[in-house]
Amino acid sequence: MQQYYVDYTVNSKTVVFNKEQQHHLCRVLRVKENDQVYVVDESNTKYLVSLHLEDTVYGEILESVPLQSELPVRTYIAQGLIKGDRWDYFIQKSVEFGASDIIPLQMKRNVVKVEKDNEKKLQRWSKIALEAAEQSKRDIRPQVHPVMNLKELVQLPCDLKLIAYEKETDSVELSTLLKGEYSSVLLVVGPEGGFDPQEVEYLVENGFKCVGLGRRILRAESASLYFLSALSYEKELKG
Ligand code: SAM
What we know:
The model has no long low-confidence stretch (mean pLDDT 94). Helix 2 (85-96) packs parallel to helix 7. The protein is 32% helix and 23% strand. The protein has helices spanning 19-28, 85-96, 119-135, 150-153, 174-179, 197-205, 220-237, and strands spanning 3-5, 14-16, 36-40, 46-53, 57-65, 74-80, 101-105, 143-144, 160-164, 184-189, 209-211. It has a 6-stranded parallel beta sheet, sandwiched between helices. It has a 5-stranded mixed beta sheet with strand order 1-3-4-5-2, covered by helices on one side. It starts with a strand and ends with a helix. It is elongated and about 65 Å long. The chain is α/β, with parallel strands linked by helices. S-adenosylmethionine is lined by residues 164-166, 189-190, 192, 194-195, 212-214, 216-220, 223. S-adenosylmethionine (SAM) binds next to helix 7.
């Protein structure tokens, strides 16, 4: 069933679609009276909606429905900025693999520099995330945050805070940590040039744990996917 995200919190029985969505409903899908779609609002609540055709198409809320396509834990991926279309690929795939929050990170070895208040880039990244959410039928709309630095990142109130670190360190077994009890997890991944040791030290001092992601060196944009797959296996597939 088709799903639409609306940019407001539904607080009545009626759902209003934007111009693009109306065009898609009427001209592309050619919906008929009482056809049904899902709608997810700004508060990430999902509704079953019946469509009504007058001069425009609008929706009538039938009921709210449980979220079916989300990981059972809120999953933040903080990624040192990556060059070019590999950054777009990272956003798209992290959404497909279940991330709820994507945090572009200023790090010492970043090749790419993006100012924190770069509205234009944030809008483009958010559009990539929204399209990936629609394609993968995510129940919620994953959020791309404005660029953060490590000082801001360590303030995030996550239960489990991990550093994807490939160097031999006293890293804790990822599988052991994923088995634990937590309602939110944050993974930090370095850019192409990796972490500066002082960054790892700072994160460890702020409660982060180093974890390995297998025996091979992964590209930055692959690391979060390895982690999200392991998390999905642990939380969704293993039973
Ligand atoms: N140090 C890497 C090298 O020797 O080529 C460069 C960094 S790697 C391309 C980008 C990031 O992916 C790393 O900073 C780390 O966060 C993550 N990463 C890659 N392979 C990993 C592994 N086997 N275990 C944990 N993290 C890994």
